[in-house]
Amino acid sequence: MILALERFGVWLRSTVVCLCGALGVVSADVADIPLAMSLLVPALLACGVRLYALRRPCLFPLALLWALDAAVVVLTGLSQPVIGGDGANVMVEAIVGISVITFQYEWATRPVAAAALAALGAVVFVLGDALSSPGHSPDLIPLVRLLIQVGLSRAAYLIVRALARAADQSAAARAAARREADVAAARRATEREYLATLHDTASATLLMVSQGDGRDWSWLPPRARQDLEALSAMPGFETGSVDLGALLGCVPEGEGQARVRLKTHIDGPLAMPSSPGLAIFNGVREAVTNVARHAGVREAELRAWPEGDGAVVELSDAGRGFDPQSVPARRRGISGSIIGRMHAVGGSATVTSHPGTGTHVQWRWHGRAQASQAGDGAHVTGVPRPPGTQAQHTAVVRLIRGRLLYGTQLAVLLISLVWQFTMSLRQLTAYQDVYDPAWAQTAAFVCLAAVAATGGAYLLRGRQIPPRARGWSLGSVLAVSAVCAFTLPPERLTGAADWAFAVVGWHALFLLADLRVRVFAAFLGAHVGLNATAVFLSGAPTAAESATMGISAISNCGFQLSVGVLMTHLLHGTAPAAGTATAREEELRTRERIHEDMQRDHKERYRALTATTVPLLVGLGHGVLSPHDEEVRLRCGVEAARMRRLFAEGDAVLDPLLNELRACVEVAEHQGVTVSLAVRGRPGEVPVEVRRELVDPVAVILGRTRSTARVTVVWTPRTVRVSVVSEDCADDRDTDETAQAHGRATDVKVTVTRTTRGGSVWVDAGWIRPAAPGVDLT
Description:
The protein is of the alpha+beta class. It has helices spanning 2-27, 33-55, 62-83, 85-106, 111-132, 140-210, 220-232, 244-248, 274-295, 332-344, 368-371, 389-430, 438-460, 467-486, 504-511, 517-537, 543-610, 613-621, 630-648, 656-670, 688-703, 733-743; strands at 241-243, 261-266, 271-273, 299-307, 310-317, 348-353, 359-365, 674-680, 708-715, 719-726, 750-757, 760-768.
């Protein structure tokens, strides 16, 4: 905005110096023209150098720029006694007046320099007036008018700047809130992908190892190494594009008796972003694993073809089938690894099956356009792009534009009222005997004040002026222009007695600030046309009179039109540019935050698995641990139960603690253990960190139980206790220490007691609720 104001000030002053100087020369005597040109031409050259400095600011020091601005007003002021007459007075007042106004914008960030130039302009104006009229006291009215112009221009700048800064602060606050929401959404999406990967890799591998001996384990070492690599990779940071056809050609079919032979049919190249491509590949891999486990057949058909900008992939088998609605929510293969994974990248997946009719799974990615409109998490491709970027940009632009419009309307309203009730009111009262009739001019003054009061009432309440009120107000302002033009002698128009000519345009600009500048230009054309008509009806003016009126029109209406152009530029040029820059900066900040948080989340997840899961995968992958060893299988069962509890942690259920316990119970039941679960008391809210510490001992005992176990949850107003009794737990001190180490991940105050009697093991974990301030729970 500062740069736009500086350019506006330089161009406006240069234009006024050129036009008003030329009209001033026209009104001068022929003998005075050479001397006047010797003063005005250097002033024009100084303006030209100042314009060039806008393009190459580094070539001109600030002191030189200040000197150029000072030279313009000094040379113009000295031309007043040379040209002489009313034309010279009007010309110098117009040029110096516009100059001191524009200095407040050119030197907006250096108010001392602007004030010094304004003071120099006032001194030069008084000096020129004294030299042109020796022996007469200087006219103080133009000087007062000059000072009012300086004060109003500075006040207008401060108002617009304050509201622009408020808009920036508001936009920054909204952006910070959106950034937190975007980061949270990206973290949730990455968490879902991580859990899906964990389900498809380490969880599935350890669960299969825990299910028993007597099988070919040749597939286990490479599978364990692949799982370890998948866990240590940085999920959510895949970039670029992939060929889905090439990926589908690498889907593992399994080994030995678990192998599923795939009949693959891929139509054409299927290039797509890596995130949906990898999601489909991982989903197909999980579906093939499900065929090997549950379908009862060893053959499936895999087809893929392009569809618009996206792709469709289908996997079909003729196995025993199942009812998808009967699958428990705790089973993650379909809901997380297949369907949830596709939703996270803006695609969709469906599973169609009936008992005895086989299973049909379809993945569909709709392309970039539809994917960008997907739900939560659909934007995660590489470092995720914040969702609704265009909508956010539009909102920022609307906010900045609204505040700039409000600021400019306030500034223009201030100019209108101050000018009307200072200079215009003085003119109206001083020249009552000139008007014919005087009451019409007074009524016009009151009407103009009523228009400003009506518009100001809407503005100060933060409301837009209704179209009907704006139409009546504009009609009234134009009527004021006509009344004042035709009730004033033509020779007095635009002169000292014409109080309305300079102020009518400000009222119209206030009413039309939110519209395109051509509307305001049309109004000014009508305003000037009415005054020109009133002049020409009484006879054609002389060249000097025409020049004087032209200078007045340029210094008043031309200046108002230039302000309208500036407002349009700020609202429709600067505001969108600022919104674009703000949105781009916010997107970069959001991406950086997402990148940092996702890296930190990944490190924390991997650190949590380091003490338990990673050693198992390393040992199994490199042959150090044998799946034939019962202790190894028990450890795998414990880790599988822990992972299932982790999968259940994010479920939206009424009782999360019971839901996570059931996930661990389900794993034990897969091992052939009979588990009874009892709940006593009324469930309450338990923080997730506490739930982890309460459930982990249960997961350890259930994972090491061979036949039967009993789990009990007891709720009281003050405590939560989770206990498990195992009739034949395979006890091991190392596992107990590992469980304790696992439980030290947080500082949660959960107490765990362990009692062993013969072959039975009883573990009790308890948590005491912290008392709220002023509440006695005893």
